[in-house]
Amino acid sequence: MRKTAWSPGFWACFFGCGLILAIAIPAFNLLVPPNSPAALPDYLVPLLGKYLCYALLALSLDLIWGYAGILSLGQGAFFALGGYCVGMYLMRQIGARGVYGNPLLPDFMVFLNWQQLPWFWWGFDHFAWAAAMVVLVPGLLALVFGWLAFRSRVTGVYLSIITQAMTYALMLAFFRNDMGFGGNNGMTDYKDLLGWDVHQPSTRLGLYLASVVALGLGYLLCRFITASKLGRVLLALRDAESRVRFLGYSVTNAKLFVFTISAILAGIAGALYVPQVGIINPSEFSPGNSIEVAIWVSVGGRGTLSGAVVGAILVNAAKTWLTGAAPETWLFVLGALFVLTTLVFPHGMVGLLRRARWIRPRAPAPVPAGEQA
Amino acid sequence: MGAGTPSPAVRDGLQSAVKRVRVLLLSSLTLLAIAVAPLARADEFASLLSDLANGGFADKEKAVIALGRLGDERAVAVLTALKDGRLIKTPDGRILVSDAVRLTDPISSTAVSGITADEAERIRVNNRLRGAIEGAIGELTLFSSDPAARLAAAQDALRHPSADQPALLEKAIAAEQDAAIRAAMQQSLLASRLVAGSKAEKLAAVRALGDKTDPQIKNLLDQFRAAPDTDGELRQAADAALASIQNRLRLVRLAASLFEGVSLGSVLLLAAIGLAITFGVMGVINMAHGEMIMLGAYAAYVCQQLFRAFLPPGWIDGYLLLAVPVAFMFTAAVGILLERSVIRFLYGRPLETLLATWGVSLILQQAVRSIFGSPNREVANPAWMTGGFDPVGGFTITWNRLTIIVFCLIVLGVLALILNRTSFGLHMRAVTQNRAMASVMGIRSARIDALTFGLGSGIAGMAGVALSQIGNVSPNLGTIYIVDSFLVVVFGGVGNLMGTLVGALSLGIVNKFLEPVAGAILGKIVVLVAIILFIQRRPRGLFALKGRTAEAEA
To answer: Which of A87, A121, B110, B268 has its CA 20 to 30 A from that of B35?
Structure first.
């Protein structure tokens, strides 16, 4: 197992893709003259960065859904929480340059006539604190939520529904103005990040590269987990949870561990996403967003890490293109994707490729069709 | 209590009996006066009008007050015009009411031509006079022929009780035919006695006001109690009355919360019953359930539009009776189509059904948006469902909410009958419990699956008709209810209609009781968190299936 997971062929593929993303794309942006047809315009860089963040989010869902059978419909909540942590840091960086010129309070607090900074905003003027929170907030929420859920053996559909209820509750909470997170409008109008202007193409390229690195490291982490002994336990409990439990493995701890790791990955994805799109608002918590992540994973191929990445990038590229070209057809296409991938291509694109033997079949095994939740 | 000294209650009774006789006498006199009045008053009206035009401010004020007392409806137009500066005197001495388009003679209420407002002189008013005019108009409207105006005047009198009101109100009460308006007037009369009555009258009024629930009366009593000229006995009576009002208000609030809770619960229940069948009985996670509700609501909209377009106007109130079966048939058909084309391939893979039906829900939403457009569509309540009634004073039970509660109970009852008393219900339960065995016994399980799914979807469609009566119809109507519906079903216990009923009602009531304490959104968040925690304790809901079936479902 370990041998095939870390074969030279894998490393060649991994670094090949990494080189394209990290070297070729910036090169096309920086070195090719802007009027040449091969040039990558500046506006596409944050868009690609956004796709990579989505890919990391899809990866985090695939880790728990594809390998441990936990379909979390609250993955978007962890993503948004990570985003809010960075959003708060960016708001504090604005300082006195806001519309109201208040050095301490963000504009929306001045607007609501608040006199002082709430305690949960303390420390967010330091990048290190914000970065720690990006990991800690989603991680702790997942730890507590998962501990409660897995301990009492809430599985399958029930787990999906309560994770959905969780993200829905968070959405309602963040929509409230007096929560102190900007309410309906969220947070936007960022100025700079670690001293660099977020609107500068160079900063955006930097953020893009950070996303490439995060996705690469996230991928390696997921691959490490799934190829390890824990990964085998996860696969086993996905297919026959009770049997694994009776064999003496701690199903609760195994699930809790991957659930927390996955939430942290989603939080990091959100943290990289917010400075690139320039806004965070409560609609990121909406249950629909989290369900959409599941379709990226399905399209790419559930239970294959590369499938999640490919699926997220392709579906979102299609979304960008279609919502521009023919906005009213996008929901039809997305809906049809949901139906077709579950009915006709249950193993997604990677599954199709493997069946066609273009790629040598390799562990982990594809999801059995008659899988019980 | 000694037999010689009459108790206060008896004394009050005597007093009020005496008063009633007096009021009766008075009122019969007034009735007589009103009957003969028009003849006598015609001249009086004209002469008061000329006083208005020709006298000084003091004369005008007297004339205004007299006009108010006259009880002549024509005076309302005159006084309103005077207040707005639209009452004019022509050079030849006639007094006319001018509005933007024409001049009217207030005595004969006919339009006058041959003269323009520019040639005439405006009759002036000052602030003191304006106050008098407003009072007079208020008094006059007590005798208006329009019941709504009379009611408004009676309620207005409650808001500004004054010393000269009691006599006027007594007169108005005597002439009033409508019981509800008379009650409002009597309430105002009691309130005005607080200001202007003798001590005995005040005491009686305070005691009588103790069994009202109107917050305005509570304010009045508060003011009365705090007034410096209120003596000890009156103050005690006021305290007692206030305490009784407080109690009553608390009860009313409780009843109101309970009704709102049951109403919300019935809406949730309607939305969730269909889901209880498809999710609970068939194990299918139908994320398109919300869209079935939405389709039902649009069916109601279409029925309404058809009635408006093709049937005589009097028939419009009947559209709802057609909308319910139409919505049921249409959404049931869509449901059967969905089951045959998508869901039947996914039995036993609940998570994948979830994704596929979510896709279907996106397609349905976008299809409806393409056909009907994204803006909200308005579905009007039929006349028999508009308005409401006030059982105790203080909160209103609206007919549309009450109808939905009843409708919801009927749907639940019929469904229970179908499940337990028909062969279809028997087959359905058989397939649910053991598909293979049911097939062996000759039940066509595929057909039963399709029909069951159709039944669940059809009920969702009827829920949509009900929801169209309390809110707007829009393409994302369904998404509002989908999370709630799932929570109701999961909370109540999957595969159990009783659980769905209890789950929906308790969620509705808890939500409405939390709302005044925590606010609407926070209350909802609390409920969501409570359910998440509850599911940890009882992962299979309130009424969990026990034994082998429960294990097989997991």
So the answer is: B110
Say if residue A109's pLDDT is above 90. no
Question: Which chain B residue has the Cα nearest residue A179?
Answer: B522
B87-89 and A187-188 beta bridge pairing: unpaired
Ordered by where they begin, the domains of chain B are 8-211 (no CATH), 250-553 (1.10.3470)
Residues 278-337 of A with CB under 8 A from B: 287-288, 291, 294-295, 298, 328, 331-332, 334-337
| Residue B161: band (very low, low, confident or very high) from pLDDT cuts 50, 70, 90 | low
CA A61 from centre of chain: 8
Average pLDDT over chain B reads: 79
- The DSSP 8-state label assigned to residue A101 in this structure reads -
Chain B residues within 8 angstroms (CB to CB) of chain A: 285, 287, 342, 345-346, 348-356, 358-363, 365-367, 369-370, 479, 483, 486-487, 490, 521-522, 524-525, 528-529, 531-533, 535-537, 539, 554
Would you say residue A367 lies in a domain?
Answer: no
Confidence of residue B14 (pLDDT cuts 50, 70, 90): low
| Contact: A160, B370; criterion CB under 8 Å | no
In this prediction, residue B175 carries a pLDDT of 76
Residue A75 included in any domain: yes
Overall number of domains in chain A: 1
**A226 has pLDDT over 60:** yes
Residues of B in contact with A160 (CB under 8 A): 285, 351, 354
Mean pLDDT score, A279-304: 88
- For residue A131, pLDDT over 80 is answered with yes
CB contact under 8 A, A288 and B537: no
Whether the Cβ atoms of residue A372 and residue A157 lie closer than 8 Å to each other: no
Residue-number span of the structural domain to which A228 is assigned: 2-355
* d(C-alpha A13, C-alpha A220), whole Å: 12
